[in-house]
């Protein structure tokens, strides 16, 4: 008997979220917590300022999700609003975020890379599928640190001028599809947050896989599947 056709047989591209998807975010936070503790021991007042600024930046970005696609540039707005929340100068906020959110974590990322992700990306490339990432943060430095950059042909960030919208707004996913000249239903999005990644994909009619514990499948019209690991996802896609 012949095998039934795979539900993924029509795929021509796969997009990935980065943070919490390509690497274990809890493991990274543990390593960064140890680094932070060492820093705080020798930099009392600076450590307090930095901690307050980091918390303000993260909360501001979550709040900005509700804006959709604003007229103002998100790349600038995120620092201005976070600085107001924390009571620091925007330039100081940008420097603290650059050090603690963008730069310092890079040295730990390879240790936190999810098992099987390299094998999956190689498999997708061998199948001739386009591979890209759509992230709320700049992705290229993280891909390099993870050792995955060679497998990825497209990187899209929420603060890119062509997007200017944090997920779950589908602007980043739509921009990737336009760049590849593919229809959303021909592209799979793999993320870790149903409320952000799956909702954004659903707005375009794009299938989505959430990496993590099984969640029971589709809900409210969202084409949502769950996969416990990249090894399982590779098998699901025919590898």
Write a structural description:
The protein contains 10 helices and 6 strands; from the N terminus they run E-H-H-H-H-H-H-E-H-E-H-E-H-E-E-H. It has 2 domains: 13-23 and 113-236, Rossmann fold, CATH 3.40.50; 27-108, no CATH class. It has helices at 25-42, 44-64, 74-86, 90-103, 106-112, 117-126, 140-146, 171-180, 194-204, 230-236; strands at 13-16, 130-135, 154-157, 187-191, 208-211, 224-227. It is globular and about 55 Å long. The longest helix is centred in the first third of the chain and has 21 residues, at 44-64. Helices cover 49% and strands 11% of the residues. Helix 1 packs antiparallel against helix 2 and helix 2 (44-64) packs across helix 4 (90-103). With 239 residues, it is of the alpha/beta class. The protein has a 6-stranded parallel β-sheet. Helix 9 (194-204) links the parallel strand 4 (187-191) and strand 5.
């Amino acid at each position: 008997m012949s095998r039934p056709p795979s539900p993924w047989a029509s795929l021509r591209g796969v997009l990935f979220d980065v943070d919490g998807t390509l690497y274990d975010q809890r493991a990274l936070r543990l390593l960064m917590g140890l680094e932070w503790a060492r820093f705080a021991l020798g930099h009392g007042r600076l450590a307090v300022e930095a901690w307050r600024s980091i918390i303000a930046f993260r909360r501001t970005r979550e709040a900005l999700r509700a804006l959709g696609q604003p007229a103002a540039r998100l790349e600038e707005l995120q620092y201005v609003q976070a600085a107001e929340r924390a009571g620091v100068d925007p330039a100081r906020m940008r420097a603290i975020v650059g050090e603690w959110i963008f730069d310092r974590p890079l040295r730990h990322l390879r240790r936190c890379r999810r098992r099987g992700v390299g094998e999956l990306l190689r498999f997708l490339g061998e199948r001739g599928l386009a591979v890209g990432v759509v992230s709320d943060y700049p992705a290229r430095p993280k891909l390099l640190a993870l050792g995955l950059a060679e497998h990825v042909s497209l990187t899209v960030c929420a603060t890119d001028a062509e997007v200017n919208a944090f997920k779950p707004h589908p602007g980043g996913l739509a921009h990737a599809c336009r760049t590849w000249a593919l229809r959303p239903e021909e592209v799979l999005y793999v993320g870790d947050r149903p409320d952000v990644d799956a909702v954004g994909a659903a707005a375009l009619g794009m299938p989505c896989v959430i990496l993590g514990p099984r969640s029971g499948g589709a809900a409210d019209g969202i084409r949502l599947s769950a996969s416990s690991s990249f090894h399982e996802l590779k098998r699901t896609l025919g590898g």
